[in-house]
Design goal:
The chain has 4 helices and 6 strands, in the order ααββαββββα. By secondary structure, the chain is of the alpha+beta class. Helix 1 packs antiparallel against helix 2 and helix 1 runs antiparallel to helix 4.
């Protein structure tokens, strides 16, 4: 899982610095991390993981998150800036979220 976390962080950094169109960013991210399956209009990206994941919700809420629903994700967490959503094998990450929060979120996955 550590290698996957590093690939997600690398994709996040690329997305954060990008001013490209969604399909251009998607091509770029897939070269770095083939598990990226989609990029939204807001340049958030969705990753398909190898197995279902669960979140230590207590830890996430302690980071200042507010639990919300972002279709089709039933488990989404909005922070002061950005959001992260998880559902089964899928993880959607806003490029606006703080990298420190993303790291802690990834550490809270099991």
């Amino acid at each position: 899982m550590e290698e996957v976390k590093e690939k997600i962080l690398e994709a996040f950094r690329i997305a954060r610095e990008s001013n490209e169109r969604p399909w251009e960013l998607q091509d770029k991210l897939r070269k770095v991390f083939p598990s990226v399956i989609a990029v939204g209009d807001d340049l958030s990206f969705t990753v398909k993981l190898e197995r279902n994941v669960t979140v230590d919700e207590e830890k996430i809420l302690s980071l200042g998150a507010k639990k919300v629903k972002i279709y089709p994700f039933k488990n989404a967490y909005r922070f002061k800036r950005g959001f992260i959503a998880v559902e089964g094998k899928f993880l959607r990450i806003s490029r606006e979220v703080d990298e420190r929060i993303l790291r802690e979120f990834l550490d809270a996955l099991s």
